[in-house]
Amino acid sequence: LSVTAPGTWNHSMVIGMMVEAAADTIDANPVLARVGAYFHDLGKLKKPLYFVENQAGAENRHDKLSPSMSSLIIRSHVKDGIELARKHRIPQVIVDMIPQHHGNSTIEYFYEKARKEAEEADGHAEVDKSLYTYPGPKPQSREAALLMLADGIEAAVRTISEPSPDRIQGLVQKMINKVFASGELDECELTLKDLHSIAKCFTRVLTGIYHQRIAYAEPAEKIFEKAGGKAAGNAPKEETSSADDPGASASKSAKTVSEDRQKEAGAKGGKEDLKRLGL
Ligand SMILES: [Fe+2]
Ligand SMILES: [Fe+2]
Fold it and tell me: Which of 4, 77, 91, 161 counts the highest number of beta carbons within 10 A?
């Protein structure tokens, strides 16, 4: 994944941290949750460039496709993931989490696009919703439910241009409410108390990762050189740690990372991405 679908890999690592921490707070299985996160989008390996997190500013391949074809490709990552996981003899308990992380949810972005196109063509917005709906089942375990929640929330938080703790918290709560109201959590045993703990935990983890750092007055490389360091690549750990910032290359300064993120968010179009996520 890290080579073929780096955006998906990064997304999987981040939600791995989120679900592990949350599982710990609600007495679910943290290791199962984390490993489930690592494999949940394995199927994206087949067509990585059709998934927004791997496009990195390149053209959006869906621009040339009908909404139903886009939906078919997006939905197929579940089936492809199950096949790949079985081929590589991943334990069944992890394979089960692959279809459950989307449950019976609808790919709202392409469903709405199809409705709009149908209305423009013949005045009727009638579209077969089943073409835009994942096959399920809904999450059957608390770990799979955590994965479903973290999946949507992490993707949504990436679209915030200036992710302050308040904004992250607001989005986490909004997403959890949305998934709860959709009925996707009806077949698992999460309680309302669990959902409250999960929201707090996800907010803490995501704030630690995505909250903007204060920009340095001058590039970190220069500060380091003044302090007697040599190459920028040897800059101090606080400024370059990829563990602190899984979305960035380890050789980037904190300021560059921060700027990159803002550019990235701008390029992708935060509003468009939120629409894609059904918000
Ligand atoms: Fe997925
Ligand atoms: Fe995902």
Answer: 77
223 alpha carbon – ligand 2 mean position (Å): 38
Omega within 30 of 0 (cis) for the link into 137: yes
Per residue in 93-135, pLDDT tens? 999 999 999 999 999 999 999 999 998 888 887 899 999 999 9
Is the pLDDT score of 66 beyond 70?
Answer: yes
Q: Which one has a higher pLDDT value, 167 or 247?
A: 167
CA 169 to ligand 1 centroid distance, Å: 23
Q: Does residue 244 carry a pLDDT above 50? A: no
Q: Which ligand is nearest to the CA of 1?
A: 2
Distance, CA of 225 to CA of 243 (rounded, Å): 23
Residues whose beta carbons lie less than 5 angstroms from ion ligand 2: 41, 151
Enumerate domains of the chain plus CATH numbers: 6-211 (1.10.3210), 218-279 (no CATH)
* Burial classification of residue 98, based on how many CB atoms lie within 10 Å of its CB (0-12 exposed, 13-18 middle, 19 or more buried): buried
Give me 56's structure tokens.
Answer: 């990195």
Triad 169, 175, 177: Cα angle to 5°? 100
Are the beta carbons of 50 and 74 closer than 8 angstroms?
yes
